[in-house]
Specification:
alpha+beta; 438 residues; 12 helices
C-alpha cells in the first residue's frame, strides 16, 4: 500500500512539474486571445475512456506520427496585438531536431528550410504557415491573410518579450480546469469533451450590437425543421458599419438596418422543386454552333427566412439597390438557388419555395440567438454530399446565447456581458467525443 501511495505521489508530482514548466516562457507578451489545451488532462481522460471502450478503439486504425516535438502539459494558441486577429501563434519544446525536420517537410508541406543563423525557418507555399525552430523550441504562426510573422517568431525563439507566469491572464488560465480554456480581456470560456458530447461555454460582448432585455420571442418553426435559428439584437446607436462589396454590388448596412427591427430567423425544411434551365450547344447541318435550352426540375434545400421590420421600406430599398429583382434575390448575388421575396405581414419572407407560407405564431425564449441543427435529418436529405463526410460522426448541434448576469450596474454601459453555450452531440453516447473525432 505504501509503495502504491509513493507511486501516486510521484506521478502527480511529475504532472505538477510539467504544468509548472508549461506556463513559463511560452506566450508572447502582446498576446490577446489565448486558448489553452490541457493535454495532460485529455490524455488521462482518453486513457480511461480507452479502457472502458476497448472494442471501439481497437476497431479504429490509428497511425502514429513522429513529430520530433515534446508535447507539453498545456498547449497555448493565441493572437497578438501587433498582428491581425486572424493570425495565430504557438510554441512547443523540441525533442528531436532531425525528426522535426522530416515532420515539417512531409506533414506540414514546407520543403525548404532557411538557415537564419541561430535557427531554421520556412514558409508554406500559400504563405499562411510560417515555422521557425532551434534545438530547444519550435514556433509557428498561421496567418489567414499571409502577413509577415517572423518578428514574433524570433521573439519566441530568443525567449524575448514573453508573458510572465504571474500575469493576470496566466493566473486566470490556471484557474480554469477544463480541457479547453480561453481568455480575452475580461472574458473567459471553457470547453470539455464528454461521453458523446463536446460542451463549450463562455462570456462575450457583441461589438456594434446591443441586446435589449432578458426575454425574447421567435417565430414558431415548422415541426419537421432540420435547421432552425434566430437572432434578436439591435445595432448600437453610435456604431457605423462599412459597406459590403459583393461582385459589382455594394451593400450599405447602415441604410439596410434602419428598416429592420433587429429580428431575423431561418429554417431548413424538406427539399423543394425548382424549375431550371440547362444550356447545351449543338451543331446544325451547316456546322454552326447553336445554343439549346432544356427545361428541367431540380430539388433544392427548402429554406425559409424572415427579416422583420418596415416591410414597405425594406422591400423598396432592396429593389432600388437591385438586391431583389422581380421578387427574387438577384441571382448574381446568390447563384446557387432561386430565393423568392415577399411580404410576410411582420417582415420579408425569403424562401426557395415560391409558394411558401410560414406560421405567424410566436413563442417566448430567454435566448437572443439560437441555432439547432439535426445532422441525421440533414444527411438523409442528400443535398450536401461534400459536407456529409465531415458530419458522419455527429448527431446534433445546439448553440444558445443570452444576456448574462450583470454583477455591477456600471458594467451594463461599459462592459455588456453575454453568455453562450455550444453543445455538439455525437453518434456514440458511451464514447468520449474526442475519441470519435479521429
Amino acid at each position: 500500500m505504501a509503495a502504491v501511495l509513493i507511486l501516486l505521489l510521484a506521478f502527480f508530482g511529475y504532472l505538477s512539474l510539467r504544468k509548472y514548466y508549461a506556463y513559463k516562457d511560452t506566450i508572447h507578451a502582446d498576446a490577446e486571445l489565448i486558448v489553452k489545451v490541457d493535454a495532460d488532462q485529455l490524455y488521462c481522460d482518453l486513457a480511461m475512456d480507452y479502457l472502458s471502450n476497448l472494442s471501439y478503439y481497437r476497431s479504429k486504425k490509428a497511425s502514429s506520427i513522429e513529430s520530433g516535438l515534446n508535447i507539453p502539459s498545456q498547449i497555448f494558441v493565441y493572437t497578438v496585438k501587433s498582428k491581425s486577429a486572424h493570425t495565430y501563434f504557438c510554441t512547443m519544446p523540441v525533442a528531436d531536431s532531425l525528426l522535426l525536420k522530416s515532420f515539417v517537410k512531409q506533414r506540414l508541406g514546407i520543403t525548404t528550410l532557411k538557415n537564419e543563423g541561430q535557427y531554421l525557418s520556412g514558409r508554406s507555399a500559400n504563405g499562411r504557415l510560417t515555422i521557425a525552430f532551434n534545438a530547444q523550441t519550435f514556433a509557428l504562426g498561421y496567418a489567414f491573410n499571409g502577413e509577415n510573422v517572423q518578428d514574433v517568431l524570433t521573439d519566441l525563439l530568443n525567449k524575448r518579450n514573453l508573458l510572465s507566469d504571474k500575469d493576470q491572464k496566466i493566473v486566470r488560465l490556471k484557474a480554469l480546469k477544463s480541457h479547453l480554456a480561453c481568455v480575452l480581456g475580461n472574458y473567459t470560456g471553457t470547453g470539455d469533451f464528454k461521453d458523446g458530447q463536446l460542451h463549450v461555454e463562455g462570456d462575450f460582448s457583441l461589438n456594434g450590437f446591443t441586446v435589449n432585455g432578458n426575454s425574447f420571442s421567435h417565430r414558431v418553426f415548422d415541426k419537421d425543421a432540420i435547421v432552425k435559428t434566430w437572432l434578436n439584437v439591435n445595432p448600437s446607436l453610435n456604431k457605423s458599419f462599412g459597406r459590403i462589396k459583393v461582385k459589382d454590388y455594394e451593400i450599405y448596412p447602415d441604410s439596410l438596418l434602419k428598416y429592420c427591427n433587429g429580428y431575423f430567423d431561418m429554417e431548413m425544411v424538406n427539399p423543394v422543386n425548382q424549375a431550371d434551365t440547362v444550356i447545351t450547344y449543338e451543331y446544325n447541318d451547316d456546322f454552326e454552333k447553336e445554343e439549346t435550352l432544356t427545361p428541367r426540375v431540380v430539388k433544392v434545400p427548402g429554406v425559409n427566412g424572415v427579416i422583420a421590420g418596415n416591410v414597405t421600406g425594406l422591400l423598396n430599398y432592396l429593389t432600388r439597390t437591385n438586391i431583389i429583382n422581380n421578387s427574387r434575390v438577384n441571382k448574381e448575388l446568390f447563384p446557387l438557388y432561386k430565393f423568392y421575396a415577399k411580404d410576410n405581414q411582420t417582415g420579408i419572407l425569403l424562401s426557395t419555395d415560391q409558394q411558401a407560407v410560414t406560421s405567424q405564431l410566436t413563442e417566448s425564449t430567454p435566448y437572443f440567438f439560437y441555432l439547432d441543427v439535426d445532422f441525421d435529418k440533414l444527411k438523409s436529405q442528400g443535398q450536401f454530399p461534400l459536407f456529409e463526410k465531415y458530419i458522419r460522426q455527429l448527431n446534433r448541434l445546439v448553440v444558445k446565447a443570452k444576456s448574462g448576469v450583470v454583477e455591477k450596474v456600471e458594467r451594463i454601459k461599459h462592459d455588456p456581458r453575454n453568455h453562450f453555450e455550444i453543445d455538439l452531440y455525437f453518434k456514440r453516447k458511451d464514447v468520449n467525443a474526442l475519441g470519435q473525432l479521429r
